[in-house]
Structure formats: C-alpha cells, structure tokens
Amino acid sequence: MKQVKTDMPPRLEVRGLVRRFEGKAVVDHVSLSVPRGQVTCLLGPSGCGKSTTLRMIAGVEMQDEGEIYVDGALICDTKFRVPPERRHIGLMFQDFALFPHLSVADNVAFGLKGAKEEKRARVEGLLTRVGLMRFIDGYPHELSGGEQQRVALARALAPRPRIMLMDEPFSGLDNRLRDDIRDETLAVLKDEDAAVLLVTHEPEEAMRMADEIALMRDGRIVQQGAPYNIYNAPRDREAVAFFSDVNVIRGKVQGALTDTPFGQFLAPGVPDGGEVDIVIRPQHVKIDFDRAGRGPLATVQDGVPARGVVTRARFMGSESLVEFRMDYDGSTLKATVPNVFLPKEGQALWLMIRRDRCFVFPAKGGVA
Ligand SMILES: Nc1ncnc2c1ncn2[C@@H]1O[C@H](COP(=O)(O)OP(=O)(O)O)[C@@H](O)[C@H]1O
Ligand SMILES: [Mg+2]
C-alpha cells in the first residue's frame, strides 16, 4: 500500500452522518475516512443504508446530521452545502447509463472542460487504459455489457475526480466477466490515485477490491478494518455469518471455560453461569473416519472428536459441503472438505474443531 503522510487530511471524511426517513434513522451516525489512493468498501446487506450514505456524500441527498470533508475542507453540513457538480466526485452507479446518442469518445469527454486537444488526449489516454481505443468512434449499443462498464469507468474518471463513489457497479455483469472487470477497474483506480468508496453487498467483492472494509448493519458501521482483520477477527457472530456459513454451539461458562461435546473452550471474561456462542466456519471442521465406533484421539489443537452421520453431501467444484446430524443431540453441523472427498449419506464420521480458528462470543439471548 502507498505511504500516506500522517499530517495530510484524509481525502474523504464523513463525521456522524445521519439520515432519517419517517422518523427512522436509516443511516445512523456513520463516520469514516478514505485516504487518497485507497479503496474502502461499504459492505452490508440490502437495505442497511449503503446507497443513502453514498448519495449524501455525492450531494444528491441531504443529511439530517453530520459533516462531509474533502481534503480537510468542509463541503457539506446541515447548513452549508457545496453543490454536487463542484465536489470533484466521480460517480458510478448500478444503473449507469451511457448516453446512447453520443459516441464512445463523446461519452467519455462529457464532463470534461478545456481545450479540444486536451480533452481528446485525456479521452484517448483513458480508452487506451481500459483497452477500448478501437471503439472510440463507436456507439454504446455496439458494445458488450463489460465494455460499456469500462466506458462508464473512463467517463467517471475523465475529470480526474478526487473521490470515486461506486454503488454496486458490477452487479449487472455475469460472473466470469465480473472478476476480470473488477481487477481491471481496481488497477485503473489505483493509477488515478482517487479515494474510492465502493458499495457492495457481496463479501467476495469487498475482499477482492478493498484496502479497508466498513461493515454496515442497520444504518451503522459495526466494524472497520483491512479485509484480513475483518475476516479473521470479526467482532460478533453476525460479522462471521456475513462472510460465510457458520455453525454455532451454545455453552454455559464455568471458571472461564465452557464444556461442549467437542471438549472445553476458553471463554475469557465471561462470568460463571453466562452463556457463549462458539462460532465455527464449515472449513474449520475437520473430518475423520469411523474405526469400529471409534474416532481419532483428542488433541490440544483440535479438542475432542464427536460423531455425526452424513445427511447431505453436495459437490461444489473446489470443495464439497457436507451436513451432519450429530450423535450428541441430533443438531446439524456443516463442514466443507476438499472435493476429492465426497462422503455418502448415512455414513458415520468423526468431527473435530480447530481451536485456533473458531470464535467465542457472549451469547446475545434467543436460540442458537
Ligand atoms: N427516499 C426514501 N424514502 C423512504 N425510505 C427510503 C428512501 N430511500 C431509502 N429508504 C430506505 O432506507 C433504507 C436504506 O436504503 P438504502 O440506503 O438504499 O440501502 P442499501 O443501499 O444498503 O440497500 C431502506 O429501508 C430503504 O427502504
Ligand atoms: Mg443500494
């Protein structure tokens, strides 16, 4: 990552942004900052307030509380407001539409001011960068979806915005194409050195694109950090579940330990009698064979094995997803295993849980 001087204000900073509809805060005190050259992904389920946040930063929606700064300068609070066209912000939205009656060159040049030759040079530079020079005199309807997307990117970047706001820009593209366009878009954005705030509801997209992820839920940012940290040090059960399937085992705590069919787990800081949820991703469940009713030996790393019977096994390409009915209480546990192994329904197997990869959270009430 690029070195950012600490005395430089962030390119984009948002403080305490609130937006209410009919008395309900759909964006609830959102604060975040994005340095130049960095991509921050606002990640969260549909309806959590991502687009509304982006629309306020773009200036097409007014906040009820909070301030927005660009390079340390206030551009918007509840009284003062720089109009959208003077915010140096580039936009790329889901329903990005190129102007159908304009050529590719004119689409890209649309927001540009200045001398004709200068504009032409910028258009050619960007179209070369996105690999579409050959279409410079073509029209949008002659291009594929992916090509149109790249023209839209070039158009948004043409005026050299300080900030790029992107709202689910890849959701209209089919899977295989999407990965390529994402990677290429990222490379172009990094070249341009803009601060990027990208909205998505897809964790894979966020992890692929982001330097930093801001995880959003019910109008609030619940956790913010590098993808590696968010994935490996999630702050609660919901944050784990947003990135993958999960298994949850609830246990009672005694002496900072909880007993489970898989052995004891540490529950530091939880008082005696309190309950915890042990949250386990399916890829961290280990599988072993049944040897005449016996499983593998207990280990420090993986605890005690528990037996289950396969109720469903699905081949998914690079891995298989296997569901078990556990002997100890009939509950379901999910495990993913490398694709070379696809067990049969009804087969008994022994499961163990990697201690260093599961998460223990105080239980929030309700059923596990
Ligand atoms: N103009 C509006 N009037 C009333 N409710 C709105 C308006 N815009 C958005 N909402 C509501 O605010 C919530 C957040 O919407 P949105 O920001 O679009 O979520 P996301 O982009 O995360 O899917 C939703 O419940 C949505 O119905
Ligand atoms: Mg949205």
TrEMBL record:
GO terms for molecular function: ABC-type ferric iron transporter activity; ATP binding; ATP hydrolysis activity. One of its GO terms (cellular component) is ATP-binding cassette (ABC) transporter complex. Residues 12-243 form the ABC transporter domain. One of its GO terms (biological process) is quaternary ammonium group transport. SMART domains: AAA. Pfam families: ABC_tran, TOBE_2. It comes from the Bacteria. SUPFAM superfamilies: MOP-like, P-loop containing nucleoside triphosphate hydrolases. The keyword Cytoplasm does not apply. Keywords: ATP-binding, Cell membrane, Ion transport, Iron, Iron transport, Membrane, Nucleotide-binding, Transport. This is Fe3+/spermidine/putrescine ABC transporter ATP-binding protein.
